[in-house]
TrEMBL record:
<dbReference type="InterPro" id="IPR058163">
    <property type="entry name" value="LysR-type_TF_proteobact-type"/>
</dbReference>
<comment type="similarity">
    <text>Belongs to the LysR transcriptional regulatory family.</text>
</comment>
<dbReference type="Pfam" id="PF00126">
    <property type="entry name" value="HTH_1"/>
</dbReference>
<feature type="domain" description="HTH lysR-type">
    <location>
        <begin position="6"/>
        <end position="63"/>
    </location>
</feature>
<dbReference type="Pfam" id="PF03466">
    <property type="entry name" value="LysR_substrate"/>
</dbReference>
<protein>
    <submittedName>
        <fullName>TrpBA operon transcriptional activator TrpI</fullName>
    </submittedName>
</protein>
<keyword id="KW-0805">Transcription regulation</keyword>
<dbReference type="InterPro" id="IPR000847">
    <property type="entry name" value="LysR_HTH_N"/>
</dbReference>
<keyword id="KW-0804">Transcription</keyword>
<dbReference type="InterPro" id="IPR036390">
    <property type="entry name" value="WH_DNA-bd_sf"/>
</dbReference>
<dbReference type="InterPro" id="IPR005119">
    <property type="entry name" value="LysR_subst-bd"/>
</dbReference>
<keyword id="KW-0238">DNA-binding</keyword>
<dbReference type="InterPro" id="IPR036388">
    <property type="entry name" value="WH-like_DNA-bd_sf"/>
</dbReference>
Length: 292
């Protein structure tokens, strides 16, 4: 029985043109001539029996049928690229590449790398910093993220531990006369990070405080900067418990009001095509350490 699929070259030509909306740009991307791209698309349209593009000025635009096909080719070619990259790196003995936020990397993961090597001697890990809202790029095997379910359709997510947040500050910001009640925060300078503006309101509502009564003294682009500001005594930071464990243990910071669970989870996000068994090994180790 003959294959119903068009040729791979025709689909590649279509996909490149659909992304650029220019046969000239698609030809440059694929390192072929404009005529070759035009011919492949014409053959594809003849095989499918409908138009995929129509003229739009100097370029082209997708027809409704073209939009449907482009959604599929973009996803399929992306998955093929990820799978081939993963197989190539596995064959070369490449390390497992994990991305996470710079703050989590510096404050939680790096201090535990020696323990990871002892517990999982066969797992060679390469850590890289990336913003949590970035898509998983090619060459990355998994990403650690704080996020709230439900997860996007098609996502492969391994849930590890709940997020717990709370106010932390230097001990000398509280006087002996202070009553350690949430209301004390109404007169203290508060610090926040722009990536989590919801943190203070979440905590306040659970404590029966009006979030509007709190005054933010300083906002920071990154959570790490906010914690450094708290360590030098600039105010009270609102932070995930995982990131201040060492500071609390050494007494550099205190958390007199404790921590609350949010609706977010720390999770391991995998590419759609990820089947690497090292991901499960890493997830099991992270779950143990995060829930100790």
């Amino acid at each position: 029985m003959p294959s119903l699929l068009p040729s791979l070259n025709a689909l590649r030509a279509f996909d490149a043109t659909a992304q650029t909306l220019s046969m000239t740009a698609a030809a440059e991307q694929l390192h072929v001539t404009h005529g070759a791209v035009s011919r492949q698309i014409r053959q594809l349209e003849e095989q499918l029996g409908l138009r995929l593009f129509e003229r739009a000025g100097r370029g082209v635009r997708l027809t409704p049928a073209g939009v449907r096909l482009a959604n599929t080719t973009q996803q399929v070619f992306s998955q093929l690229e990820q799978t081939c990259d993963q197989l190539r790196r596995e064959a070369e003995g490449a390390p497992f590449v994990l991305s996470c936020s710079g703050s989590f990397l510096a404050r939680w993961f790096i201090p535990r790398l020696d323990q990871l090597k002892q517990d999982c001697p066969g797992l060679e890990l390469h850590l890289t910093a990336a913003d949590e809202d970035q898509p998983i790029r090619t060459g990355v095997d998994a990403a650690l993220r704080f996020a709230s379910p439900p997860w996007p359709a098609g996502s492969r997510v391994i849930e590890l531990a709940p997020e717990r947040i709370g106010p932390v500050l230097r001990p000398d910001l509280l006087s002996d006369a202070d009553q350690v009640t949430p209301e004390v925060l109404l007169r203290l300078p508060l610090l926040e990070t722009l990536s989590r503006p919801q943190a203070w309101p979440q905590w306040c509502r659970q404590q029966g405080l009006n979030p509007a009564a709190l005054k933010i003294a300083q906002s920071f682009e990154h959570l790490n900067y906010m914690l450094e500001a708290a360590l030098v005594g600039l105010g009270v930071a609102i932070a995930p418990a995982y990131l201040v464990e060492e500071d609390l243990r050494t007494g550099r910071l205190i958390a007199p009001w404790g921590f609350i669970e949010t609706d977010a989870l720390l999770s391991l996000w995998l590419p759609d095509t990820g089947q690497d068994p090292r991901a499960r090994q890493l997830a099991e180790w992270l779950t143990r350490k995060l829930n100790q």
